[in-house]
């Protein structure tokens, strides 16, 4: 079982999924983990508190009443709280009791391969309709005006709504029953000393995102130079975040101007984190120039 730390609740999640189970149900938890991945946490009085702080989603193998009583004091904000799915110990049903539109419904459906029946209660998906949150996720976007989703989701129950893709520069004026989606698009460039640990890389990424008031959900890719393709700490950190790690060829690295001096010059490279981030970015704009966090360097481009 692995444990992760976050900087602040709801900002950056270190773990994707926690599976909470009583000791007698650990074998059941292992079966679910084979399908979903994640970390198994044996039930204790602090298990849900830990999971709320450190994971994006939770599967609770227990009676729904036990789960509800545990999460009730922890619920803060639908946009920050993790999705919670309850699964009975007989592996009959998977019931999202929190965050259905924020990953819970999809997680419950994923368990259907085990013969577990997903019990979906959110109005849009229960009626076979898509939600604003689901549309945003499928388009790789985040919702700017979150208060709009209640009205728009109600409208989606009645009819199909057009999704308008507006290219800028433009000025858009909307009412409160219009959801505005913005495409995610950050690339985090990573450089590191040889033998860097996974935890050091994770902490550096968190710190860099915090400087931009950005979230891991805003990141499209992690990137580094090909010289780092066997650096386990970088690879493991990207897997922990659930993001694709791309290594950029040295020819491309050297074709991009890195604004910050780099010791990579000694290796025949213009840099590592800055040119790697710029190589995959759409706007070729550095939002965060190279920052040094111990053994790790981070740059962020859009």
Notes on the structure:
The protein is 30% helix and 23% strand. With 302 residues, it is an alpha/beta fold. Strands 2-1-3-4-5-6 form a 6-stranded mixed beta sheet, sandwiched between helices. A 5-stranded mixed beta sheet has the order 11-10-9-13-12, sandwiched between helices.
Short description:
With about 300 residues, the chain is of the alpha/beta class. Helix content is about 30%, strand content about 25%.
Throw out a few tags for this protein.
302 residues; alpha/beta; 5-stranded mixed sheet; 11 helices; 13 strands; 30% helix; disordered N terminus
List the helices and strands and how they pair.
Elements: E1 15-21, H1 26-36, E2 39-42, H2 47-54, E3 55-61, H3 64-71, E4 83-87, E5 93-98, H4 104-110, E6 117-118, H5 123-126, H6 132-138, E7 141-143, H7 149-158, E8 181-183, E9 186-192, H8 198-211, E10 219-225, H9 232-241, E11 244-248, H10 250-253, H11 273-280, E12 286-293, E13 296-301
Parallel strand pairs: 1-2, 1-3, 3-4, 5-6, 9-10, 10-11
Antiparallel strand pairs: 4-5, 7-8, 9-13, 12-13
**N/C terminus separation:** 35 Å
Overall shape: globular
Secondary structure class reads: alpha/beta
Major sheet, described briefly?
Answer: 6 strands, mixed
- What strand line-up does the widest sheet have? 2-1-3-4-5-6
Low-confidence residue ranges = 1-14
Portion in beta strands: 15-25%
Provide the helix percentage: 25-40%
What is the count of helical runs? 11
Mean pLDDT: 89
* Helix/strand order, N-terminal first: EHEHEHEEHEHHEHEEHEHEHHEE
Q: How many strands in all?
A: 13
Radius of gyration: 21 Å
